[in-house]
Design goal:
Elements lengths: L6 H6 L16 E2 L4 H6 L5 E2 L2 E7 L6 H14 L4 E4 L7 H6 L7 E4 L3 H13 L5 E4 L6 H13 L3 E7 L11 E6 L4 E7 L14
Parallel strand pairs: 3-7, 3-8, 4-5, 4-6, 6-7
Antiparallel strand pairs: 1-2, 8-9
Helix pairs in contact: 5-6
InterPro entries: ImuA_translesion, P-loop_NTPase, SulA_CellDiv_inhibitor, UCP037290
Keywords: DNA damage
Organism: Stenotrophomonas capsici
Length: 204
């Protein structure tokens, strides 16, 4: 699914300007590919230059399927999507069948003690359209650093975390929790808009 990319290469790529991610669009959202979700989000999609938290009861509940339409569109447009220390080896055919252009998908391998730093550096690099990370032990200060990094790197950041963190305050611009009993996503926080009262059942 593409070569493991050195972080220094990501940092060096910051000099590359992408017309599809020009500053005129920074205030708008990145369409999620799920019309009911776009309709309730204040930016009309995933917030750009910001961190989104997906709060999960377990791995593999549909979190990647939720993101696939966006990641597919980004990679097909020639932009880079990076997975930082994913908990499982990504299955390339599944990503490809979801529309992701594998040439634009990169995996950064990192030991657990280095994964949070790598996540932050990729967000900050300015070379990525989106970065996915799985920060298990990040405290409030670390999450603030990730949010700032996504902002400065003009990037969509996605932090996939255990739902036990839902009780803690978060600097993330958007927080969604998966509710297995309803097979639905509940918006817990959306900066700049009202939090919907009802969970959203999304066809994936």
């Amino acid at each position: 699914m593409g070569e493991v990319l050195a972080l220094d290469e990501l940092m060096a790529a910051r000099t590359v300007w992408r017309a599809s991610r020009g500053s005129a669009l920074n205030h708008e959202g990145e369409a999620t590919g799920h019309a009911p979700l776009d309709a309730v989000l204040p930016t009309g999609g995933w917030p750009r230059k910001a961190l989104t938290e997906l709060l999960l009861p377990a791995d593999g509940v549909g979190e990647i399927a939720l993101l696939l339409p966006t990641l597919a569109r980004m990679t097909q447009a020639g932009n880079r999507v990076v997975l930082v220390a994913p908990p499982y080896i990504p299955y390339a055919p599944a990503w490809q069948s979801g529309g992701v252009a594998l040439a634009g998908l990169e995996v950064v391998e990192a030991e657990p003690r280095d994964a949070l730093w790598a996540f932050e550096q990729c967000l900050r690099s300015g070379a990525c359209a989106a970065v996915l990370g799985w920060p298990k032990t990040a405290d409030a200060r670390a999450m603030r650093r990730l949010q700032v990094a996504a902002d400065s790197g003009d990037c969509c950041g996605f932090a996939l975390r255990d739902r036990r963190h839902a009780v803690n305050a978060s600097p993330a611009a958007l927080r969604l929790e998966y509710l297995p009993a309803q097979d639905a996503w509940q918006v817990r926080k959306c900066r700049g808009g009202q939090v919907p009262s009802q969970p959203l059942r999304l066809v994936q």
